Give the backbone structure.
Amino acid sequence: MSSLEGLGSDGTPERVDDAIADAITDGLPVDWTAEGPLERAAAPHANGYRIIAAVADFHRRGRDRGLQAGAAPPSPGSPASDAAILPPGSTWGHLRIQRLLATGSFGHVYLAYDASLDHDVALKLRRISPGVPEADDERYLDEARSLARVKHPNVLVIHGATRHGGRVGIWTEFIEGETLEEALQAKGPIGATEAALIGADLCRALAAVHARDLVHGDVKTANVMRARGGRVVLMDFGSVRESPEAARGIAQSGGQGTPLAMPPERLHGERPTRAGDVYGLGVLLYRVVSGRYPIEADSFDELRERHARHATTHLTDVRPDLPAPLVAIVERALAPRPEDRFRSMGAMERALDGFLTGRRRVPPSVLAAAAALTVVGVGGIALRDRVAPVLATAWERLTGRPVPIALPVGVSEIAVCAIAGHQLNPMITPDGHQGAIVVWEDRRNGASDLYAQRLDHQGLPLWEPGGTPVCTAPGDQVLGSRMSFNMPPMSSMVPDGHGGAFIVWSDLRGRDFDIYLLRVSAQGTIPPRWPRDGLRVCGAAGDQLDPMMTSDGEGGVILCWRDARDPARLLDIYAARVTGDGTPAAGWPVDGATVCSSDGDQQMPVVASDGSGGAIIAWYDFATDPLGDIVAQRIGGDGRLRWRGPGAAICREPGGQRAPIIVPDAAGGAIVVWGDDPRGGDARRIRAQRVDSLGRALWGDSGVTVATGRGGMPLPTMTTDDAGGGLITWVGYDADPRGDIYAQRLDARGRARWGRRGRAVCAAGGAQQFPFVTADGRRGAYVGWVDRRRDLRVPANPGSEIYIQHLDSTGTRLWADQGVSACRATGERFYPSLVSSGYGCATAVWVDRRSGSYSDVFGALLSQAGALAH
Amino acid sequence: MDREPLESTAALLKRYVEGDERAGERLFSRYTPMLRHWAHGRLPSVARDMMDTDDLVQDTLKSALGRIRQFEYRHEGAFLSYVRRILMNKVRDCARQAARRPTRVELDEHHAATAQTPLEMAIGREDAERYEAALARLPKRRREALVLRVEFQYSYAELAAALGGISVNAARLRAKRAVMQLAEILSVEP
């Protein structure tokens, strides 16, 4: 049996970690139930272990039972004990099961019918755990029985608790509604009055608990429900209503306490106290008005360390609009020392009631002075704003360069398309008038269609609200491609030079995927001579996918794609050229010219203009190395290949090369950057090579190394710096295993201009992912990424923001040190891409899941002080 | 799944590298069922219809064995790790191609397989992807130990031989450290 037995409350986090690792390595089942506060605090990497245990379990079952398509019943003690679910109509004790409501590591919650009450109840059945001592179950029941003695309108009514059929269960009133955490995720933070009302109710509820000489010990947003009709109900045991993630069947963190909501004394192993409940309520109020935690961290050690340093984020910094008296109440409840908090729940309730009923009028000047003093005390930001301009002028005189003070940035959110149904894969391109055109895949009508919108320099839409249809032909229209969620986005759009754009896609209206192209005018209409639902560029047999496109410099475009028309030759690369009028260029074969049809797969072509009507195409080639090489070829404006053989080898070293990106240099050649995995070593590298118009490598035989990572593959994105070099960004995992964003500028000679290892664009705590870079027109760059700094994985309430930074030509950050947030809505967002909208302005778009059900396209216009827009 | 004493598989590998073609054939028949089973767990049913798992595995083994003499394979663990990567790439590409078919109503923004693989059904798609991403970030030797122990279910004796003839205790320790490091990567990264 698992070596977790006997650890009990003596288990330090390290010992519990070690014991779990032993069990998983030895192939023994792990007991995941962790109800006590200390066991919850121990095993900081429990989430990771669960996943590994589940993978091990999966493979073990497969081995034991032979090949099976479906999931076999898991062994007891594994996270997904589906075998233990009671079906509707069955009974447990005197209760009749109606349906499963929620599931998690603690066990299952059912809706059940209690005949003796003649009422529905919520039944929480604890997981079957062979080997868990009976004393543990008894403790659980005792706590339930104690809580049953608390009678208060804001405390969940507990009807009973007992052991039956080897399982321990508690049945309580069944509440229809949502937890404060669910409400926060769905609708965002609430206002001061509503928060104070909820706080006052919870003070009364906790006072009733304390009056029975009990302590709650786990006050948090997930433990408080808002019933239909508005009643606030305090619940217990952490997980009667789990997050939607837990309902998927695998607990991510359910059942564990929330270290972020724990008072500092609890993190060091002390037992729960009344003062701890005050603190928990303070965290809850902080969270419902801001969506955050007062102290955020990504690991236990970091959390303890931040508590020791009092590294809290002051509520005023997060919600400057909140009335000062409410902020003061919350901050007092959050005092690090228990004796500094409210002495009792009654005292806190009186403070909240005072705030609600009679707010004294404070002169605005006094308020402002108080706020300024407070801010100066915390971080000196206000001080910097006053002194900075003086220092800046002095610095400029001395050095001739502007001092890197963070420029204030205005952010305007843009709802590009939030219509019901999924909107996905947005791509953005400049329109040549400081605005941008956005195209995306839209499922509002069922299948995937293409819609587009044009935004002016203020981010306002110029075309139809919700997007102008580009192609609504039957079947799916698919933009670009993404190998996996780690890859950078690929572009399917180029400006047409007249305020409009060309759009290319893979289209399934026929038997298989074909390549289609359309031009959209500056007014959002289809120019004459272009077919309504797109011009078919390639309709050959088999799938044509992953089209990429570049301007041909003469009003038309050159496209390339991955082609499966010849099954014997697997995947090949083809290209086509189309004029601005929608006619195929003279001399090019129908259905595309062959770029490469060697044996083995050629995939993921990328294309750059060669400056003379043709293009250089690079791709990921499996002809000789099963892990992939990077090869490039040049095709002229006449449709003929220019380089010998299958193409110029950009990188043919053994080991894997992946994810090529190409940009034109200013001289008829191109720069290619890729992720590299040299054989035998653990290092992952980003490398780059430049080829000239004759296909000759210019940066040494094997190119230059842009970055080396010890762990993980830094995935690069690149854009031209408009001076023959490239601007590259990637995610590095060496300093922070969650990922930080780095950038580098390579000049035309392949020399790194921004430090030997590049510049850190963002090294904030938390994960930064999916960087995207675009040139700012002055040898600098805008970099956007997905940022998870505000969330901790425990508990699993994932959410991400989009951050943007502006780097000047020396790689210096012009905006706030760790970037400017372009979107603080709750929920997830993915795949940001951005364009420059005039100097100092950037427009970003991304896939946004704030609605919780559908994906939408949202964006933002960011303008730095002194910029043109706004 | 019956496996002959792995000392002989590691020895087979060595002999094949040194030029013994018959050893290659035996390796082929040894690894095929194991890899087929592994690949089966990673292919969504949609793709499994379109593509014979056997073809996938055979392609992979042929490629990998074909290149083996150009690489310095120190031990079986390194070879299987290499094979797994090739297979994973092929599986992913298969799944992507299958996903292009509009047979599913539900959509996933990653545009990866819209049907779930058996592994994803067991642990969820997000965790399956995170597991792969985190696995790629382990140091090579630890990744080998973890893959062989957790995915291919090697016993400690088999593991010791596959990792180059180290002691059984050392093999267990390497696998355990790999599990701990992987858990840390998975826990800190959302």
In short: Chain B has a mean pLDDT of 75. Chain B is about 70% helix and 0% strand.
